[in-house]
């Protein structure tokens, strides 16, 4: 049995932390912020690894591998492009 | 033991992700944020992969390699294409959530019906609807931004559009309730597939009435949806790390959406259901004034004699690829002791913060980029406001013209500068069909021509073309 109450708890607290942290993000960096949060939310990859790698029927595992590919693309391109953009912000 | 490792890894990754976003509060520390993010991600992936339940490794390796093959080129797109890359990554995120939700449902229905409790089924349905609508909605947005031929750029509207849209969503949710109550009936699989189809359709319908001007807001809203679909996935998989990361993504999208809406004086519902961007004809100005043209020589002299110049860049500047010429102009003027600042409107560009990235690419120091709220009180002391490819964000009609689609939108007070120089490609009225009286003000001088060429001429003049 999954403890849904503690999950809801986590959701509420994480949302408040998110609002607090994101509000302080430099306005100069909203574009890299979006690619960074995008890469971070691709942590969904951990779910896909389980679906693709556990002892499930073949069709289920194919779906898992497809989702894993989509998340992995976001991780790779998200972090790389964020860093590429941040490198350009120079003081002088 | 491996369970403890997984839990510890999740806690570490959560902390690193929060630090990662925290460091984005200053360009000086921001790159540290990427390192923290990558570290958190690597820890989480490794800890998941070593779990004993993972017995097949071939497809995991294959999918990761494929992710790199597609992801690396996607990270090298030109910076003008970053909005469509972002929309595409929202699509991928939504797609991953939708597919995993589908897999979890059919897995439960086929192998272990007891797992499909009402709560878990509700989470699966939410994940699938959010995931697939984000998928097609973001694909449509990316297509519009990329100006793909078969996707109409102009908003597509028809009578009863909102009724149809809401209707599709209501049917999807109603079918969702049905499978939550009967997860394993003989027809449940078909109903579930119908939900997927309706979500896919809804994503398309949601975006077709939205015009280019609203893209910054729409990308932010889709960002929020992508985050929410990750949260739903966390509920389905009983994974607190996923819930946390999804909530961070979702709240980021929410904050950016609110900022974008405020910057255009619109509400969420108005963006999604208002079909802005349809060509609205405004009444012609009472007395037809005419613009005054300035020569490049005269403009260069004006700039040279100023002590404070504020540049107002618009997306037109990026389209003309004029950023690098603008940087040369910036160098010429600062060399002469002129203070040059760039006034950035929140919706300048095609996604939040886009203009800052475009200017940073041209090596303009970020200390010269100033937000609208900070620059406006200083505009009266500004000697020359140089408007490059910006139009609506400097249109004084936004302050008082009640019938105008931009009424109430906060603008950069370029008109309050002592002198206004505006570079404009043609003498025709703007693309949006809205007259801009800034151009006919007494203190405004026009420079007609391609932004890159005109600024290049200005730089030449300043660099020693006979002045002094």
User: What would you call the shape of chain B?
Assistant: elongated
Shape of chain A: flat
Distance between the termini of chain A: 57 Å
Helix-residue proportion of chain A: over 70%
Oligomeric description of these chains: heterodimer
**Amount of helix of chain B:** 55-70%
Class based on secondary structure composition and strand pairing of chain A: mainly alpha
Percent strand of chain A equals under 5%
Helix and strand element order of chain A: HHHH
Describe the structure.
The complex is a heterodimer of chains A (92) and B (468). Chain A is mostly helical and 92 residues long. Chain A has a domain at 27-87. Chain A contains four helices and no strands. The model of chain A has no long low-confidence stretch (mean pLDDT 94). Chain B is an alpha/beta fold and 468 residues long. Chain B has three domains: 1-74; 77-273, no CATH class; 296-462, 3-Layer(aba) Sandwich (Rossmann fold), CATH 3.40.50. The radius of gyration of chain B is 26 Å and the shape is elongated. In chain B, 51% of the residues are buried. The chains are: A mainly alpha (92), B alpha/beta (468). At the A-B interface, α1, α2, α3 and α4 of A face α1, α2, α3, α4 and α8 of B.
Please outline what is shown here.
The complex is a heterodimer of chains A (92) and B (468). Chain A has 92 residues and is an all-alpha fold.
How would you describe this structure in keywords?
heterodimer, A: 92 residues, mainly alpha, 0% strand, B: 468 residues, alpha/beta, Rossmann fold, 3 domains, six-stranded parallel beta sheet, 6 strands, 57% helix, elongated
Summarize the SSE layout with pairings.
The complex is a heterodimer of chains A (about 90) and B (about 475).
Chain A: H1 4-23, H2 30-41, H3 45-53, H4 58-87
Helix pairs in contact in A: 2-4, 3-4
Chain B: H1 2-22, H2 30-49, H3 58-74, H4 82-111, H5 118-146, H6 161-181, H7 188-207, H8 215-237, H9 240-263, H10 268-273, H11 296-305, E1 308-313, H12 315-319, H13 323-335, E2 339-344, H14 354-361, E3 369-371, H15 372-375, E4 384-388, H16 397-400, E5 419-424, E6 444-448, H17 451-462
Parallel strand pairs in B: 1-2, 1-4, 2-3, 4-5, 5-6
């Amino acid at each position: 049995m999954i403890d849904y109450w503690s999950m809801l708890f986590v959701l509420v607290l994480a949302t408040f932390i998110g609002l607090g942290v994101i509000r302080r993000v430099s306005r100069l960096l909203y574009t890299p912020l979006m690619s960074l949060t995008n890469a971070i939310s691709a942590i969904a990859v951990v779910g896909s690894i389980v679906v693709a790698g556990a002892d499930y029927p073949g069709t289920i595992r194919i779906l898992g591998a497809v989702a894993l590919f989509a998340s992995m693309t976001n991780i790779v391109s998200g972090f790389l492009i964020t860093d590429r953009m941040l490198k350009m912000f120079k003081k002088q | 033991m491996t369970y403890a490792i997984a839990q510890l890894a999740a806690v570490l990754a959560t902390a690193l992700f929060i630090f990662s976003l925290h460091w984005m509060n200053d360009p000086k520390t921001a790159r540290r944020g990427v390192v923290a993010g990558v570290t958190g991600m690597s820890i989480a992936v490794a800890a998941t992969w070593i779990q004993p339940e993972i017995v097949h490794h071939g497809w995991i390796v294959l999918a990761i390699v494929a992710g790199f093959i597609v992801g690396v080129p996607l990270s090298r797109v030109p910076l003008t294409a970053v909005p469509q890359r972002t929309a595409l990554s929202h699509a991928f995120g939504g797609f991953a959530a939708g597919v995993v939700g589908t897999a979890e449902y059919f897995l439960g229905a086929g192998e272990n019906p007891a797992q499909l409790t009402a709560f878990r089924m509700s989470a699966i349905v939410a994940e699938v609807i959010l995931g697939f609508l984000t998928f097609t909605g973001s694909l449509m947005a990316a297509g519009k931004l990329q100006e793909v031929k078969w996707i109409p750029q102009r908003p597509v509207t028809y009578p009863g559009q909102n009724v149809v849209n809401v209707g599709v969503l209501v049917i999807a949710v109603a079918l969702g309730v049905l499978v939550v109550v009967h997860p394993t009936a003989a027809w449940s699989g078909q109903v579930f597939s119908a939900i997927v189809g309706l979500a896919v359709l809804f994503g398309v319908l949601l975006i077709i009435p939205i015009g280019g001007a609203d893209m910054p807001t729409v990308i932010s809203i889709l960002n929020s949806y992508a985050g929410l679909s990750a949260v739903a996935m966390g509920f389905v998989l009983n994974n607190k790390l996923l819930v946390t990361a999804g909530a961070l993504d979702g709240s980021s999208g929410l904050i950016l959406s609110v900022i974008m809406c405020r910057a255009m004086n619109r509400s969420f519902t108005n963006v999604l259901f208002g079909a802005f961007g349809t060509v609205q004809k405004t009444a012609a100005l009472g007395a037809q004034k005419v613009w005054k043209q300035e020569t490049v020589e005269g403009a260069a002299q004006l700039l040279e004699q100023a002590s404070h110049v504020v540049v107002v860049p618009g997306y037109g500047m990026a389209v003309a690829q004029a950023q690098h010429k603008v940087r040369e102009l910036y160098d010429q003027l600062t060399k002469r002791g002129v203070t040059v600042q760039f006034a950035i409107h929140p919706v300048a560009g095609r996604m939040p913060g886009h203009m800052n990235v475009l200017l940073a690419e041209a090596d303009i120091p970020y200390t010269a980029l100033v937000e609208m709220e900070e620059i406006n009180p200083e505009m009266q002391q500004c000697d020359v406001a140089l408007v490059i490819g910006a139009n609506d964000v400097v249109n004084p009609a936004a302050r008082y013209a009640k019938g105008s689609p931009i009424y109430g939108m906060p603008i950069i007070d370029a008109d309050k500068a002592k002198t206004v120089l505006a570079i404009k490609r043609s003498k025709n009225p703007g693309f949006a069909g809205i007259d801009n009286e800034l151009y006919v003000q007494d203190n405004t001088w026009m420079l007609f021509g391609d932004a890159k060429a005109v600024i290049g001429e200005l730089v030449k003049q300043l660099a020693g073309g006979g002045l002094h």
